[in-house]
Design brief:
Blueprint (H helix, E strand, L loop, with lengths): L12 H66 L3
Length: 81
C-alpha cells in the first residue's frame, strides 16, 4: 500500500488551543465589555432625555406665564379689555 503524502505543516491540537483560546477569550471579553458600556451609556442618555423633556416643559410654562403677564400689562397700559 502506497504511503499518502501530506502537504503542509503539522500543527498539534494543543498548539492551536494555546494560541486561539486566549484570542477567542479576549474577543468575547471585549464584546461583553462593549455591550455593557453601551447599555450604561444608553441608560444615561435616557435620563438626559427625560431631564431635557422636563426642562422643556418648564420653559414652555415660563414663556406662557410671561406672555400672559405682558398681555395683562398691555391691557392696563393701552386700556383694552
Amino acid at each position: 500500500m502506497p504511503e499518502t503524502v501530506r502537504k503542509g505543516i503539522f500543527i498539534p491540537a494543543w498548539v492551536i488551543a494555546c494560541v486561539f483560546s486566549p484570542i477567542i477569550a479576549g474577543g468575547v471579553g471585549a464584546i461583553t465589555w462593549t455591550a455593557k458600556t453601551l447599555l450604561e451609556h444608553s441608560h444615561q442618555l435616557i435620563e438626559i432625555d427625560e431631564k431635557l423633556d422636563s426642562n422643556k416643559e418648564l420653559l414652555i410654562e415660563m414663556v406662557n406665564s410671561h406672555e400672559r403677564r405682558i398681555s395683562r400689562i398691555e391691557d392696563r397700559v393701552f386700556g383694552e379689555n
